[in-house]
Design a protein that fits this description.
Blueprint lengths: L32 H11 L12 H17 L2 E2 L7 E21 L2 E4 L6 E3 L8 E11 L5 E2 L4 E2 L10 E5 L23 H11 L3 E6 L1 H4 L3 H8 L3 E4 L11 E6 H10 L4 H8 L7 E28 L4 E11 L4 E2 L9 E2 L2 H20 L5 E8 L7 H8 L8 E6 L11 E4 L7 H11 L3 E4 L14 H5 L4 E6 L7 H15 L16 H18 L14 H6 L6
Parallel strand pairs: 5-8, 8-9, 9-11, 13-16, 13-17, 17-20, 18-19
Antiparallel strand pairs: 1-12, 2-3, 2-10, 2-12, 4-11, 5-12, 6-7, 12-16, 14-15, 18-20
The chain binds zinc ion.
């Protein structure tokens, strides 16, 4: 599905604010706010057609980025001396209306796509899906977390069966426990539950939808999953996707369980304990039948690199997605170009400016890679492709920084860490911010799992320490109230709409400039050190990183 990404905490100034000189004491190379403004204006102009992957807008955007990298003196960072990494994408649709139903004790319960159930088109590279009367098993939260001594599957053979699981993680409702309390660990995210379903050999995994633990309503589930689906082209898609990935409405799950002699609330309580075991629903089966229509489209990531002087095989990664929504339904003004100026023109401009700053300064000891990802808006596809097919080894990627939608409302007293508490990169950020009289504001909604919804995540999942820093909300001019109001106005009036356009009169890029300087300082410190940042011992990504510890010296 397509959750709210580019959540941004992005703010727009209510009034024109004069630009402020924002050079920091720790950044040796000079940032140019004017250059960043030029970049944003260029990539978000109507000529770029909203930067849709595999469109004319892609050609223009990727050429613009390449030309800027070249002019700044970078080397091509893609495979085989290219500026580009080809990203083949599988595009998949369910043809017509899918047939979906439960039977309970011989009674058929039909399920309407989009109403009671939402099933994603198959990512298994097949032309049809046909499951007849598969047994249904309630699997609690569907979590297998050895480092937390938690296993909802208990070794049961689930091959070919249909799993029902709860959303979020086992201690969400209690608010404290082994999964960070209210904060969502990756075990709470639906993408994890489907990946685990593939590992367990399930024929289908159906997430029981509940708005509060999901952090969005059924409309989001429906609108993001019953249309065209995308995935990167994979050698063996069945390793990560079960045949059916879907959601079922809470009330329909309650009814099904009741008909099978089970009580939803009682099972949920049990699922919040280590003792939980899979519960097969007596007399219940699930069937599904539909055709799939698919195609492969080709897009690309853009990569620039500065080789390190003494440790070129060790990489610091900066990344931002270049794509946006392209041309779509017109708004009330009749505008159909989704310009994506904030989302993610600001990120493109920031990473380009970081590339220029590093290229202009003394060459660092470790290599710097500047990545511009495709198809973030289709589900983090470009970054996932890079992480699955890394151009530079992930085990010796020291750290990475994701930039998605920075502030255009001027300077802030703070910076936001999305997914706070994950890695010690935050401690480094705190020090750099403090030198500039700024502080960290922790993720305001850790229960929503935003850390799992942006382009750093495919690398994070594979153990690379990644920081997702966002612009602050406590504005020098307007305070927290002003920052929050501007954020709300952006979400209401511009986010993922044709109105996300460059506005020279209203925008103030001085806060974005400070953020870029902070990220430059962080990367520069790491690039000239022998440090290896890591996830905290409480992070679900620490064990993955530690597995490759011997390749880092
Ligand atoms: Zn974005």
């Amino acid at each position: 599905m397509k959750p709210i990404r580019c959540l941004g905490l992005v703010v727009m100034a209510a009034a024109c604010t004069p630009s402020v000189n924002t050079t920091t004491t720790t950044a040796p190379a000079t940032l140019s706010t004017a250059r960043m403004a030029t970049d944003i204006q260029a990539v978000s102009s109507d000529a770029f057609l909203g930067r849709g992957p595999a469109t004319k807008g892609e050609e223009l955007a990727t050429a613009y980025i390449r030309d800027q990298l070249k002019a700044a003196g970078l080397q091509p960072g893609g495979p085989n001396g290219s500026w580009f990494q080809d990203v083949p994408l599988l595009q998949s649709n369910i043809v017509g209306t899918p047939t979906l139903f439960f039977t309970v004790n011989g009674n058929k319960v039909a399920l309407t796509q989009g109403e009671q159930i939402a099933v994603r088109s198959s990512m298994q590279n097949v032309d049809h899906v046909d499951i007849q009367n598969a047994p249904v098993v309630f699997l609690g939260y569907g979590v297998k977390a050895p480092e937390r001594n938690w296993d909802d599957f208990k070794g049961e053979n689930l091959r070919g069966k249909v799993g029902l699981v709860l959303i979020n993680d086992p201690d969400f409702e209690a608010g404290q426990g082994d999964f960070g309390g209210k904060a969502m660990t990756y075990y709470g995210r639906w993408t994890y539950k489907y990946e685990e379903a593939a590992r367990q050999g399930l024929a289908a995994m159906l997430v029981v939808h509940e708005t509060v633990p999901a952090s969005y309503g059924w409309a989001t589930v429906k609108n993001s999953n019953t249309n065209t689906m995308f995935d990167i082209v994979r050698q063996n898609p069945a390793e990560v996707h079960p045949p059916i990935e879907g959601w079922i409405q809470h009330d329909d799950a309650v009814t099904l369980l009741k008909a099978a002699g089970q009580d939803y609330d009682a099972l949920k309580k049990l699922a919040q304990t280590r003792e939980f075991k899979p519960v097969t629903l007596a007399g219940a089966t699930f069937s599904a039948n539909y055709q799939i229509e698919q195609a492969t489209i080709r897009s690309k990531n853009v990569l620039g690199r500065l080789p390190g002087t003494t440790h070129p095989n060790e990489t610091i990664l900066y990344g931002a997605h270049w794509d946006h929504l392209g041309v779509g339904a017109p708004d009330a003004r009749g505008d159909s170009i989704y310009n994506g100026a904030v989302d993610n023109g600001t990120g493109i401009a920031a990473v380009l400016e970081l590339a220029r700053m590093f290229a202009a300064g003394p060459r660092p000891q470790r290599s710097m890679v500047f990545a511009f990802w495709t198809a973030e808006e289709k589900g983090l596809m470009g970054s996932e492709y890079y992480a699955a097919n890394p151009v530079y080894p992930l085990e010796t990627t020291v750290a990475g920084f994701n930039i998605d939608a920075l502030s255009v409302s001027g300077r802030a007293h703070d910076a936001v860490v999305v997914g706070s508490g994950q890695s010690d990169l935050e401690d480094r950020l705190k020090t750099v911010l403090a030198a500039n009289n700024r502080v960290i504001t922790p993720d305001a909604s850790p229960e929503a799992g935003y850390f799992f919804r942006s382009d750093h995540f495919p690398m994070a999942k594979r153990g690379v320490p990644m920081l997702y820093m966002d612009s602050g909300i406590d504005l020098l001019n307007g305070g927290k109230a002003g920052g929050e109001a501007a954020d709300a106005a952006y979400r209401r009036d511009a986010y993922h709409q044709p109105a996300d356009e460059y506005d020279a009169a209203k925008w103030d890029l001085s806060g974005m400039a400070e953020d870029v300087n902070v990220l430059h300082t962080l990367g520069l410190q790491l690039a000239n050190s022998r440090d290896w940042p890591n996830y905290r011992t409480t992070s679900e990504f620490r064990p993955t990183r530690d597995k490759t510890a011997s390749s880092r010296k």
